[in-house]
Amino acid sequence: MERDDLALQNIQARTRSPSIWLLANIERKLLLATSNRSEATLGYSTMDGDTSGGLSPLAGVDKSFLMRWLKWLETEGPIGASPIPALATANSLTPGPELRPLSANQSGEDDLMPFTISSALQRIALVERKDPRAAYATLVSQFVPQFESQQLRSWVCRFYRLWSANQWKRERLAPSFHLDDFNIDPKTWCRFPILSGGFEQELIALQNEEQL
């Protein structure tokens, strides 16, 4: 049912986990979790589902970088090595969790926001420590007219709300590598209250400005 959409997606992700753990145990291997920094920032992952694992090697890099890197591997490759044309199949797919029926054409960007916007807000909000209004002004200066200002405002509100609501997930993520100049791992870098009002008052004010 439509009202249970998220719950049904989550249970599907969780039912995969026992089998994956079983295979890892049988082979005496370390299970790697799959979430990247963009997903961890916004809580776009299922606890005890795709977050299962003992190490999260991608959690220190954002989705936009991963997509550019895979395209580079496909077409160029590192010095002294050949490109990997077989990656064209993976690179042609629309990134998404594939938890709704295939007919839904589920997309991570449709569920959240464009990956370029998410990556920009990760830096603006978490490194530069700007509040929602300042983050919105920065996005407008960078992305208008590519995106309408009203849409940017909506994505800013969604980003800060999801960031604030999902610290509890980040506290339980498997350890990750520190691969660039910032990280959202609360155990080593980025602390944030698990239960808080977050930026709700600032977001209400920002939304009211939209209605003027």
Structure description:
By secondary structure, the chain is mainly α. It has one domain (2-211): Rossmann fold (3-Layer(aba) Sandwich), CATH 3.40.50. The protein has helices at residues 5-27, 37-42, 63-75, 87-91, 108-111, 115-127, 132-143, 149-165, 167-172, 200-211. Helix 6 crosses helix 7 (132-143) and helix 8 runs antiparallel to helix 10 (200-211). It is globular, with a radius of gyration of 18 Å. It starts with a helix and ends with a helix. The mean pLDDT is 91.
Layout of helices and strands:
Blueprint: H1 5-27, H2 37-42, H3 63-75, H4 87-91, H5 108-111, H6 115-127, H7 132-143, H8 149-165, H9 167-172, H10 200-211
Helix pairs in contact: 6-7, 6-8, 7-8, 8-10
Extended strand count:
0
Sum up the overall morphology in one term.
globular
CATH class (first level) name:
Alpha Beta
Determine the mean pLDDT: 91
For this structure, the CATH topology is Rossmann fold
Gyration radius over CA: 18 Å
**Percent helix:** 40-55%
Helix count, per DSSP? 10
Q: What is the domain total for the residues?
A: 1
* CA distance, first residue to last residue: 36 Å
Low-confidence stretches: none
Just name the CATH architecture: 3-Layer(aba) Sandwich
Q: How does the helix and strand content classify structurally?
A: mainly alpha
Order of helices and strands: HHHHHHHHHH
Biggest sheet, open or closed, and with what strands and sense? Answer: none
